[in-house]
Amino acid sequence: MFNSVNSSKLLASAFCIFSVLCLNAQTSEISTKPFTDGTNHWYFIKDKTNIINPIPNQPKYAETDYTKIADNILYFQRDNGGWPKNYDMKAILTPQQVDSVVKTKYIEHTTFDNETTYTHIHYLAQVYTLTKDERYKDGCLRGINFTLKAQYPNGGWPQYYPLEKGYSRHITFNDGAYMGIMNLLKKIVNNDPDYAFIDAKTRKKVTAAYQKGLDCILKMQIKDNGKLTAWCQQHDEITLEPAWARKFEPPSICNAESVDVVLFLMDIDNPNEKIINAVQGAIKWFQNSKIYNTRVESFAAEEMESKYKKIKNDVRVVNDPTAPPIWTRYYELKTHRPLFSDRDSEFLYSLAEVSRERRTGYAWYTDKPEKALKKYPEWQKKWAPDDNVLK
């Protein structure tokens, strides 16, 4: 009787635990925020090269529908393991849209641009951890192998792989490409539980790729006037020097993209001398390149139609003694003057000189370096206690 009663209690307890687990599984959600850039491009920027375009009021899955979203990710994954950019992974696709997407799997126009591929890989890893559905594991591993294959021998990554003509061959920090890959590899190297399924052979390859990527970052840091500064948005894949990308993206010291590089380096435990020097140089540069008494404001303006979208606003720079420090996205090499440009690649030195289409359609100013400066005191006390570069 005693054993029977206890057995019943154990079964009841097990059933309760199982019910809770099932409930949690059904109500769990995985953030799709990492796909925001591509999603916004799909809905709001015209692109004749899109495989599919959104239908009016395209329905979307809820965040809790992570298997449906993961299925979308598998639809878009190409045969080479990578992904095309600028689609909404939450979109509830019509059968015709699914058919059009699947028919393009053989195309090798795959990229890390606009937070593509590495975000898809991580989403699949999380869904596999929750479901143990082998399809998601296989898709994740194919994505990781694609990423490893895309790495240059010097440790950098191009914007597109397989390699294409033009600036997409450059090693690219822009739109989070390089550091997105590095943060993905870091999760695997640091034994993130979402990647527990990765075999020892693949893990070894990932660790080697991560170290090469870190070494390449340190080699690309711009040394200007004899001092370490920050990084460019893109670096030549052979010389590692700052390079042109799009016609309005000049070789320069780029504060916006450099912040994520510095934050990544600051998170490394027991940094070696090269990493410490890299952080110190970049932090000093952020401090020295501050712009004061300046505020950027957007205001309503007469609507105009550009090649890319309708523009209903304009942007201007105003003097404001109460404004917090700000930085321009670009600083000219050697002179360190705030730098702007346009679709004709001319060097400009004020936002007012930039055409309205580019003035309103690009982030020419940034406050991102403040994140690194705020984090610096704690980092400096721990890893460079005798050398505060902000004093």
TrEMBL record:
<dbReference type="GO" id="GO:0016829">
    <property type="term" value="F:lyase activity"/>
</dbReference>
<protein>
    <submittedName>
        <fullName>PelA/Pel-15E family pectate lyase</fullName>
    </submittedName>
</protein>
<feature type="signal peptide">
    <location>
        <begin position="1"/>
        <end position="25"/>
    </location>
</feature>
<dbReference type="Pfam" id="PF09492">
    <property type="entry name" value="Pec_lyase"/>
</dbReference>
<dbReference type="InterPro" id="IPR012669">
    <property type="entry name" value="Pectate_lyase"/>
</dbReference>
<keyword id="KW-0732">Signal</keyword>
<keyword id="KW-0456">Lyase</keyword>
